[in-house]
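User: I need a structural model of L-ascorbate oxidase homolog from Solanum bulbocastanum for a docking pre-check later this week. Nothing fancy, just the predicted structure tokens so I can convert them on my end. Input:
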Amino acid sequence: MERTSITVVSLLVCLTFVLVKAEDPYVRLEWNVTYGTIAPLGVPLQGILINGQLPGPRINCTSNNNIVVNVFNHLDEPLLLTWNGIQHRKNSWQDGTPGTTCPIMPGTNYTYRFQVKDQIGSFFYFPTTDLHRAAGGFGAINVHSRPLIPVPFDNPADDYSVFVGDWYNKGYKSLKKILDGGRTIGRPDGIHINGKSLKVGDKVAEPLYKMEAGKTYRYRFCNVGMRTSVNVRIQGHPMKLVEIEGSHTVQNVYESLDLHVGQCLSVLVTADQEPKDYYMIVSSRFLKQAELSSVSIIRYANGKGPASSDLPAPPPENTQGIAWSMNQFRSFRWNLTASAARPNPQGSYHYGQINITRTFKIVNSRSEVDGKLRYALNGISHTDSETPFKLAEYFGATDKVFKYDLMGDEPSTSDKVTVASNIKNATFRNFVEIIFENHEKTIQTYHLDGHSFFAVGVEPGKWTPEKRKNYNLVDAINRHSIQVYPNSWAAVMTTLDNAGLWNLRSEMWERFYLGQQLYFSVLSPARSLRDEYNLPDNQPLCGIVKSMPMPSPYKA
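Assistant: Understood. Predicted structure tokens for L-ascorbate oxidase homolog:
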């Protein structure tokens, strides 16, 4: 009996150990969000720092890790952070957009809890409240593959994050006043690289990054700007593209790469040149006036000699530049044989063989409403509510906050623009096609929270059903953002299989702020924990739900 008891106890101990080990690892962080003086273009401004840093702390994690970030808001205004590209499976409560959750009020804290479920790749976080995006507050989210999942390239000698984008010297509060007054913030003042800007010939005490001769490095580029597409290149060093927004790519080599607002990509760079300094160049794309640019120094360890002032030329501009950029986009291909977050190859998912159940055709527009600038999608210019829409749904109070489906699935035939909350009902697990049609003379970039999509087509002109024959139905990149060139269209496909409320937005923040966005409401009819999590216990309440009784929770 004694031996049997010991055996049973041993089995229980082992079982308990297995159960404990079965939970995915945690990454725990504590962030203090404060004001601080920053000067990306040399002009001191009030910026937003995280733990005193810009860029903020890097979230370095592995696929399926649980991320816990305790955010203390030391600003004198409400704050929300979003995790651009993280899908938050069943958990739109953590998405950090004004339509899903109440903000972190001044002098308080909130703990974000989410899992990077079945994801790998390069992403970033930033604040979504007001014009905070123009003040900094951004940082890297690098999600690595699990050790047992093969990666289609050797481990790099180091892994570098590079944040690029346009910048304004007016300061975010002044920019907000301009937009609130009904005017555009106009052309940016310059380009920054990791919150700094240099010109050729400037003396540099410390380089942006260092490389050792003969070694290969991973550079993760993200465009965290307000409105401007950029081109990135490194003097004398070709870049091998290996990943875009969580998908391994066919490993083509590029001398330069276009990167649109809100987008991220990874390249490998080999230090195979003469050991000395080299310039990394970031220049604006498709601006009406003169090009904006910035440089930074990449330094070889033990290298001797300054970087040459002979910079690689930027790509063409105007009509030729659009064609050049569009062709580069078409050269980006999904690596069908590589595994991503799961062991099965990416190409084992045959998205091109799934029947489309619904098509959304979305046209952006710019107009004036009551004498003030507004941007719209299919005639609806979105406005937020004091009560987040997701909370209104959860508490059964939607009739007091917003109306569903004010925007049609097709563009409006009228030029009238209605300012209202733009919430689209979507059917859970439907495979949908979204067409973005841009009739304006400026490039657009869109992002969808909670999902990734297959970017199957980009062409000039207007979209018609006959254009489907030109779609890439085999190896289009699975990603979360897509650019739409002037007077052109873009098509994406996705399965709306993530229950929650998800923001589809322009990544041009003036346009986002003035209405060029919507929310997809993806509700599971089962109201089950298998499909969506309950409201977190630590979630602050605001608006009309603050005084309402808690609804019955979802059940398994």
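Before docking, keep this in mind: Residues 2-22 form the longest helix (21 residues).
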